[in-house]
Every structure is written in structure tokens, then in C-alpha cells.
Amino acid sequence: MTATIKNIVIGSLVGVGLALSATHGAQANSLRFASEASRNDTQYAGAQKFNELLDEKTGGELDLKIFTDSTLGNGQAAITGTRGSTIDMLVTGSSNFSGLVPLIGMLDIPFLFENTDHAYRTLDGEVGQELLDKLNDVGLQGLAYWDNGWRQITNSAHPVHTPDDVKGLKIRTTGAPVHIEAFKLLGANPVPMPIGELYTALEMGTVDAQEHPLGVFVSAKLYEVQDYLTLSYHAYSPLIVAMNKSKFDALPEDQQEALIEAAREAGDYQRELNNQAIAEEVEFLRGEGLDIVESIDQAPFVEATIGVRETFVDQFGGASELQQIDALRVDD
């Protein structure tokens, strides 16, 4: 989605949010909602939609006070704050929860999903709900999955066509064990770090590569410090919207239901925005001068990283869940 289109969409939602705040602010129970993403990202548009739907479903009894740009901390800090009740709710990548609930890390296994529909069938089905339910044990209430999108590789060294082109790259990854292991198997040097530090790290050469969904890559303006983009689609990254469990449990049942329904409906909206934006983001990045590899042979990448799945099962279990995910494929 171009910057102009995003600004129009997000600008209109901001107006809705301000109107709702003016109308219901006095009596509403405002929930502090944390996001790492900027206001140009679809996460913010999703949060505004969430607020609008929550207002409708609760008659103004609940609303969100939205904090973007890691104002309340990076993903890990926001999770800690939400568990500790200083933050009510957050949205962040599923990989940020894997330290608390290791089984959630299976979602980051490279080439786990054959396409976006397969990912959505998984997340919106039994396996997805099972993983959300496990958050209850660590003081969180999982509400919904939103869309971070497919992770793509960028770097400042050379085009990436094959696994050999990844060897030796200092690449920023999340702290998820499967992300780190996958890039080690590809011969790269993975360097976990928060996204808030990434732009400067790329600019200074601390790392020379990264892998994020295009929406994050564009909204964080990482294209200003990268030269090459490969549409590798090597992993799908969901976002998880979660709330402090004690605060959730203290709400009336109708408000609990409204929160879950609003979060999931807003997720559908945010997913659609992300999917519509991909082609326009690619053209935008081409216009910014990036050298773009639009198609690769995934087979050698799959072969090189196949050991990640076995290692994950050995360490954390999840064999039956992975079999359920495989069973949801339609092309096999």
C-alpha cells in the first residue's frame, strides 16, 4: 500500500478514534494497548478498527488508548508489562512469546506453511486456539492472531538467489530459536536484536542483512539502509493480540466476548490491508532503487533448513501439532 493510500486509511480511522474518545471517554474503561509498529503500519490501522468495534460491541464501556512506536517498550518489554499489569494489552510478533511458551515457536519454523490461506486455517483452527490457550499459564489471555506477513530477506551486500548467497551475511533475526537456527544452517551469522535498534545497526554496518515482512520493512524505512530485496517467503509471521489475564477475567462475560470478537474482526480487517499492500509495496521499493529478486527456487532453502523442525520437536515437542498443520495443506 502506498504511503498516500495508507495515510488516507489510517487518517480516517484516527478521526473515528478521536470521535469515539470524545463521546465515550468519560465513562469508558480505557485499556492501554501497546504496539512496536509505527502509525504508518497496518498494526495501527488494526488497532483503530479494534477500538471502533469494541466501542460498538460494548456501548462505549470499553475503549483502547493506543501506544505505537515502542512507546511502552519493545515486544519483550510490552509482554512483561502486560503480565505485570502496567500495560493492559499488546500486539507483537508470535516469536516474542516463544520464551514463555516454547510451543508457540513452531509457528516460526521455516517453510511450515505452503501459503497464506494455510497459515490462516492453522491459526484460526484448533492448533491456533491451543497455542493461545497456553498463554493463560503465564498470566496472559490470547485474543486473536493478526498478520505480520511473510518474512523476506534484504541485505546491503548482493542479491540472494540461492543458499550460498546467504552464507556469511550478518543478519538481524528475532530471538526465536528457530529463526536463529535456520540462518545458522544457511551459513549466515544471525544477530538477534529489537527492531527499534535495527535501522541504526544496518546504517552503521553492525549487521548487513535482515528479514522482516514487507509492511514492517517499509514502515520502519529500512529500505533507506538496504540495497537488495529477495522475496524468499521463508517463514510466515503472525502477530498475537494478548491481554493481562487477571484484568480480562475481572470483566463481565459480555465484555470478555466483545473483546475477543472485536480483536478477531479487527484482525480480519488488518490481514486484508496487509495482503492488498504487497504488490504496491514491491513497486514502491523498486521506485526507491532496491534491486529486487521476485522469485527463487525454494527447494534448496527447504533442504538446507529441514533440520530446524526435527530440532524443535526434540527440544520442545509439538509433533502432533505439526502433523495437524501438515494435514491442513491442500496441495499435498
Can you walk me through this structure?
The chain has 332 residues and is an alpha/beta fold. Helices cover 46% and strands 20% of the residues. It is built from 13 helices and nine strands. Strands 1, 2, 3, 4, 5, 6, 7, 8 and 9 form a nine-stranded mixed β-sheet that branches. Strand 1 (29-35), helix 2 (42-58) and strand 2 (62-67) form a beta-alpha-beta unit. The longest helix is centred in the last third of the chain and has 35 residues, at 253-287. The radius of gyration is 19 Å and the shape is globular.
Layout of helices and strands:
Elements: H1 3-24, E1 29-35, H2 42-58, E2 62-67, H3 75-83, E3 89-93, H4 116-123, H5 126-134, E4 140-155, E5 170-173, H6 177-185, E6 189-192, H7 198-204, E7 209-213, H8 214-219, E8 228-244, H9 245-250, H10 253-287, E9 291-293, H11 299-305, H12 307-316, H13 319-327
Parallel strand pairs: 1-2, 1-3, 5-6, 5-7, 8-9
Antiparallel strand pairs: 3-8, 4-7, 4-8
> How does the major sheet shape up?
9 strands, mixed
Round the Cα radius of gyration to an integer and report it. 19 Å
Q: What is the strand content?
A: 15-25%
**Average of per-residue pLDDT values:** 92
Q: Please estimate the helix content.
A: 40-55%
**Number of H- or I-type helical stretches:** 13
Runs with pLDDT <50, length 5+? 2-6, 16-26
Number of strands: 9
| N-end to C-end Cα span | 32 Å
Order of helices and strands: HEHEHEHHEEHEHEHEHHEHHH
Which word captures the global form?
Answer: globular
Structural class computed from helices and strand pairing = alpha/beta
